[in-house]
Amino acid sequence: MKTTVNEAKNMLEKMPRIPLGFFPTPLHRLDRMSEELGVNLWIKRDDFTGSNLFGGNKTRKLEFLIGKAAEEGAEAVITYGATQSNHAMQTAWAAARSGLKPILYLAAVVPPDPDDFKANLLLDGVFGAEIHIVDLEEGESFADAERRSFKMGKAHIARLAEEGVVCYDIPMGGANEYGSLGYLNGMVELAEQMQQQGIRFDCMYHSTGSGGTMAGLMAGRNLLGLDMTIHSVTAMEVDEKYAGRAAGLANKSLELIGADVIVEEKDFLIDQDHYSPGYECPSEEATEAIKLLARREGVLVDPVYSGKAFAGLIADVRNGKVPAGSEVLFLHTGGATVFFAEKEIIGGVAR
Ligand SMILES: Cc1ncc(COP(=O)(O)O)c(C=O)c1O
Prior knowledge:
There is one protein chain. By secondary structure, this protein is of the alpha/beta class. The chain folds into 2 domains: 5-56 and 175-346, Rossmann fold, CATH 3.40.50.1100; 58-174, Rossmann fold (3-Layer(aba) Sandwich), CATH 3.40.50.1100. The chain is built from 12 helices and 10 strands. The chain has a 6-stranded mixed β-sheet with strand order 1-2-10-7-8-9, sandwiched between helices. It has a 4-stranded parallel β-sheet with strand order 5-4-3-6, sandwiched between helices. α8 crosses α9 and α10 (284-297) crosses α11 (306-318). Pyridoxal-5'-phosphate binds at residues 56-57, 86-87, 173, 207-213, 305-306, 333-335.
């Protein structure tokens, strides 16, 4: 039997959580884009999660992650990502405003100018983060540099433990079962808005990276028994175990709240057709999608994540995968800070 919105809220109530954002985020129709695409297109503004101009999807996860860190008596948190990671920046502010010390290990996919930190990396410093830049070694991939940074982080946590300091380890993208509770909760919030506004969606599109957001969304969808398909458009190449890992994560989150439904690998629709030429590498298609949305609606999606996901949505409408007249939701996960990052990441959006 499906769980109601109120029952789901009660289940989540018992989880460790520190309020950080402004919820519910707005849900509104995109009139001019709907006309352009021939579908009924709505947007959920998780770029407005707060608590400053530069929110995004990580705020939801961090409410539970910082809640868990506080429950464990942590004085510091550590996390990982690229030097322009939105997740790392949002972790830095969430930690700062919760009285915890933020420590970041950041892989330099696009090497920053040490005398001119920009965008997220600049904000990391403003929030008082201890920043460790992990330069890519000759021939090393981003994924390998990330793995090396995780080891450096573990060693750092062990050193702090010897000094009696508890440091909570937040995985890259906040992708653990506590982080995914954030999007389980986000799906409950969306379901309530749909009830209140008398709308339903055939499908949702969103950007995926670590997989934590899609795990939480699917956990929430299955818990509430919603019949909306969720298209997860990747920001990078992912391996064949990606959906399986997300299902594992979703099930751990569901277990934490005592739910009796599960998520299966086959529930996920992973779209790998729009990340090319690579992570933090701008694409023509995303550039066009960013300009179209900005010029029709004044909404900003970014070149690394949300712009590529929006390009995926446009492509599926235009190639008929999403039939004309469908009720379509775009989950805006944020990321516009990157417009002020290195030009290699931004591409030709201004032209
Ligand atoms: C703007 C934006 N959208 C989407 C994602 C992907 O979220 P997840 O890592 O939960 O898959 C990220 C991750 O950092 C992000 O910064």
